[in-house]
Amino acid sequence: PVLQPNPDISGIGVLLGFILTAYGALFCCITKAIIDHKRSKSANNTPNLDRWASALRATIVSFSDQQVITGISIIIGGLSQLKAGISVYHWLSVVNLAWFSTITHLITLTVLREELQTNMPIKILRITGMAVLITMLICVMGPVGYLISDTNGIPNTFPAWCLYHPGIEWKSGKHLLGKRYNWLYQLFAMGLLIYSFLTRLVLLLSQSGGVGSFVFRIPVGQPWKYTEERLEKLQQRLDQTDGFSRFFSPAAIKFKVLFSIHAVFLTGNDLYQSKTWEITWLSLAIAWGTIRIDVSRSGVSSLGNPSELSQDVKLQHNLWGFGQVAAIVLLLIPIISMFGMIVFLRLRFDLLNY
Question: Rounded to whole angstroms, what are the CA distances from 66 to 104, 173, 290, 296, 327?
Fold first, then answer.
């Protein structure tokens, strides 16, 4: 079949809307994390930083809600077109855009972690939205393993419906059961999503932010305090010895091994709870999604398979219709929320000092 244009999914405005939202939210999250760090280190009042932190928080909340709604909407839109014959080219666009929404939402939850601790209803609502979005994304990502391969030769016009029915023969007598499925790519992508969801879930539900306290009900600060006490006692015993025994005795070797293991686990725990680490690897996930969209947009839907995009399809996708313009204009909502909060807090500050 001839590839038909589908600007609601692959239009230039829709793609730019998702991409700009993702990087805008990332910029706001990084900025707020820096401001929060400066506020925590300052011994004096920081009214200007406080206003910017509140304004950025309102913007990030707006981005977070927007990404859940748009992510679920784009997936529903793609699923509703399965029986109508949506092509694998546009199906990949659905997956890539939903990926953007999911990762962006996870980044916003990383920065809003402390704020959500005190509001249980909102926390449950956001966790539910996150779970629904990730579950739907995993479902639409399932058959993509047939496309991420340079040996299958699946054309861009191939109906995505057939990916969910690999046993059905094509007109040529072939079927997908004989095609290579890229398990490594799929396991990595889905594993990243599941890990992201579970770590956000634990950090949001646990007051101390630890797996042990939430899952295993281990007291806060344990088992690190107990381990450090045991290591300190062992160190005191070693200090009472001298010469060869102090460095090469079985007790000394035991101390070095236990101390090394303790240091590794303590570093891993600090890294797990670090916002800097979370934002860094989620930023890499956004960059990966950007590359995937660029590859698909430039005319390669399956790695190594050239696209059959006609000039008419490219023209329709690059046409700035109402839907494309609306997708860009909606980006103004978070910006308006930020500046509105800044103005409100400034007026409130002036009234309090009047």
Answer: 10, 45, 19, 24, 11
Q: Is 228 left (phi over 0), alpha (psi -120 to 50) or beta?
A: alpha
Sign of CA dihedral 140, 211, 207, 286: negative
Bridge partners, 306 (sequence order): 300
Q: Are 157 and 111 in contact (CB under 8 A)?
A: no
Q: Spell out the residues 6+ positions from residue 71 whose beta carbon is closer than 8 angstroms to its own.
A: 97, 98, 100, 101, 102, 105, 133, 136, 137
H-state helical runs in 240-274: 244-248, 250-272
Residues, the chain, total? 354
Residue 231 Ramachandran class (φ > 0 left, ψ -120 to 50 alpha, else beta): alpha
Closest C-alpha among 36, 64, 54 to residue 204: 64
Q: Summarize pLDDT for 33-76 with one digit per residue, the tens.
A: 888 888 888 777 777 888 888 888 888 888 888 888 888 999 99
pLDDT tens digit sequence for 81-129: 888 888 888 888 899 889 888 888 888 887 777 766 667 777 788 888 8
SS3 66: helix
In one-letter notation, the amino acid at residue 299 is G
217 contacts 184 by C-beta, under 8 angstroms = no
Report the greatest alpha carbon distance in the chain: 84
The residues with which 159 forms a beta bridge, in sequence order, are 87
Residue 339 has pLDDT above 50, yes or no: yes
CA distance linking residue 208 with residue 219, whole number of Å: 10
pLDDT in tens, 214-262: 444 444 555 667 677 777 777 777 767 766 666 667 777 777 787 788 7
Three-class SS of residue 300? strand
The torsion region of residue 199 among left (phi > 0), alpha (psi -120 to 50) and beta comes to alpha
